[in-house]
Write a structure and sequence with these properties.
By secondary structure, the chain is an alpha+beta fold. It is built from seven helices and 13 strands. Helices cover 30% and strands 32% of the residues. The strands form three sheets. The protein has a six-stranded antiparallel beta sheet. Strands 5-13-12-8-9 form a five-stranded antiparallel beta sheet. Strands 1-4 form a two-stranded parallel ribbon. β12 and β13 form a beta hairpin. It is globular, with a radius of gyration of 19 Å.
């Protein structure tokens, strides 16, 4: 459900230059990928405006939009915002995001980290889904989203300006210029219902995002570590990093399901 989030990872948002909220947004697009069933538009990361919060302030927020648009009537991954959020270390962590009247759980794309010098800081790396209708609305009004801590102990609020989203919509118009309008309707953005566990679902997603060479590298490593993780897969690839992260979080049964799926996929 998420795409290279990221330039994601501790790695995510450091892969390209970061925009500030007072930029003119003339150079927002970081990458465009054309898949078999959709176009994925990855914007550059941006430091949003921090609004008045409850209980704390952020030390740093870097957000990055990836918008996916269907080019056929088949199901596609949903669009999402990836966030790298740093704050003074506390007894709580942030676990949900709300915007436009809805609240949704966040999904970690990399384990949280801590660092200490004079003060200790925590950094969370997560994504949250955003409907393409909300992207269109944000191109008019900007996007204000609140990040909530467990039990309501803290809330941080951020705003990404409208121009950031308008630049993505302008790129979408160029990329979908020759796609029939019926395919571009919101109804074509089908969300896949899956009975897989989250680690299995995300492992499948990131496997499909990886290159053939990366798939082979991961498959060999995964078979060796099919009972438990005994060796580390070292790579600078964002896709492999996410693959190993979710595979490592899976149970032995999940690992078996993932490997069976890979074998069947290779036989198609």
């Amino acid at each position: 459900m998420y795409k290279r989030i990221l330039g994601l990872s501790v790695v995510l948002l450091s892969g390209c230059s970061t925009l500030s909220s007072d930029d003119d947004f003339s150079d927002v697009i970081n990458e465009v990928e054309k898949k078999s069933t959709y176009v994925s538009i990855e914007a550059k990361s941006i430091n949003p405006i921090e609004n008045e919060g409850v209980g704390a302030n952020a030390m740093r927020n870097t957000s990055q939009l990836t918008a996916n648009y269907a080019t056929t009537s088949r199901a596609i991954p949903e669009s999402y915002v990836a966030v790298e959020l740093s704050y003074f270390k506390a007894s709580y962590a942030y676990d949900s995001v709300s915007f436009n009247g809805t609240e949704t759980d966040i999904t970690a794309y990399s384990p949280s980290t801590e660092s200490c010098s004079e003060h200790c800081t925590s950094t969370q790396y997560f994504t949250f889904p955003i409907d393409n209708k909300d992207i269109e609305l944000s191109a008019k009004n900007g996007l204000t989203y609140d990040v909530h801590a467990t039990n309501g102990t803290s809330k941080l609020s951020f705003t990404i300006p409208a121009g950031y989203f308008q630049a993505v919509l302008d790129e979408k118009a160029l990329q979908l210029e020759h796609i029939p309008s019926s395919v571009q309707q919101p109804g074509a953005e089908i969300k896949v219902e899956s009975k897989d566990s989250k680690p299995v679902e995300m492992s499948k997603y990131w496997f499909d995002e990886a290159t053939v060479a990366e798939q082979e590298q991961f498959t060999e490593w995964a078979f060796i570590n099919r009972k438990e993780i005994n060796t580390e897969l070292v790579s600078s690839s964002k896709e492999l990093e996410m693959l190993t992260y979710w595979y490592s979080k899976s149970s032995v049964t999940d690992k078996s399901n993932i490997l069976t799926w890979i074998i069947n996929k290779k036989q198609i």
